[in-house]
Write a structure and sequence with these properties.
Strand content: under 5%
Structural class: mainly alpha
CATH topology: de novo design (two linked rop proteins)
Oligomer: single chain
Order of helices and strands: HHHH
Number of helices: 4
CATH class: Mainly Alpha
Helix content: over 70%
Radius of gyration: 15 Å
Number of strands: 0
CATH architecture: Up-down Bundle
């Protein structure tokens, strides 16, 4: 299948699902975190598919790679925030493990795409 849009990319679709999951779990965070950790988690998560999409639309591999690296950085930021949330007992161990595994998979997909762009 020919990729015509960033929305055709599995990596983009999975990162959108991750955003949805982050929004669901942060609904249960303490209200005093609304402008703190809740906001940070949501912005980091949203940054992942947003940068994949923006890079795709640049049409140049060098620029695309740069936006993918930004997405990768957002994955690291989100991982850190999930760990902090777990340490503060805002997430249980099952939620934490599930989300961290998904972030890890998305990070690997991003790295794979970067390598593919480097080869071209």
């Amino acid at each position: 299948m020919k990729i015509k849009s960033y929305s055709d990319l599995n990596i983009w679709k999975r990162s959108i699902s991750l955003v949805e999951e982050i929004y669901k779990i942060t609904k249960n965070f303490p209200k005093e975190e609304i402008y703190g950790l809740t906001s940070q988690l949501r912005r980091s998560a949203v940054s992942i598919p947003s940068n994949i999409a923006e890079g795709f639309m640049r049409f140049h591999n060098k620029e695309y790679r740069q936006f993918l690296y930004i997405s990768l950085g957002s994955c690291a930021e989100l991982t850190t925030q999930i760990i902090i949330s777990s340490h503060l007992s805002y997430l249980n161990s099952e939620e934490t493990e599930e989300i961290l595994n998904e972030i890890d998979e998305i990070s690997k997909m991003i790295m794979g795409l970067i390598k593919k762009l480097n080869a071209n």
